[in-house]
Amino acid sequence: MRHVALCLLLLLSVTVQANEAERLRQAGFAGQSHGLALKNQVVLTYLWADVYAAALYAPAEVRARLAWEQQRDIRVELYYFRDIDRSDVIKAANTTLKRQQVSARLKPEVDALHARFRDIQMGDRYALDFRPERGLNLEINGEVVFSSPDDGLAKAYLGIWLAPKGLSEGLLD
């Protein structure tokens, strides 16, 4: 009986890995984006449903974690597998920011960024692109819809995916 259970777990693991590989292929992340190299990609699954694929880009010569820690050029791209109401996205972001104890001084900037969100449709692409000399851009389907020069906002908001207790911490591995 123990062998059967072990075989079933192994089969489930292989199936999950194959599904993630297919989802990442579907997301179609390129080896480079906006002059940065692809460092890692993951699929967020919630209650057995794939929600989005995330990709992390940073300078080719820098490890992803070091780029994050030193606030170097960094880009997080999200490809959505399902429709999501903007209010649900904002609620999830605010919950994560609160859990990560982000400074209340950033609330006006976070609210301004959230004001640019739209209802997500399956296949939409959101990106957060940070450059120290420019600041943070939010792109929706390739269009810049929000910009901020505030490095603190960039660190906090990218932290939703990259910081400890973030949604896609595995991107830094």
UniProtKB/TrEMBL annotation:
Domain Chalcone isomerase: 34-171
Protein keywords: Signal
UniProt KW Ribosomal protein keyword: no
InterPro entries documented for this protein: Chalcone_isomerase, Chalcone_isomerase_3-sand
Pfam hit, one: Chalcone_3
Name listed for the protein in its UniProt record: Chalcone isomerase domain-containing protein
Top-level taxon of origin: Bacteria
Signal peptide from the UniProt entry: 1-18
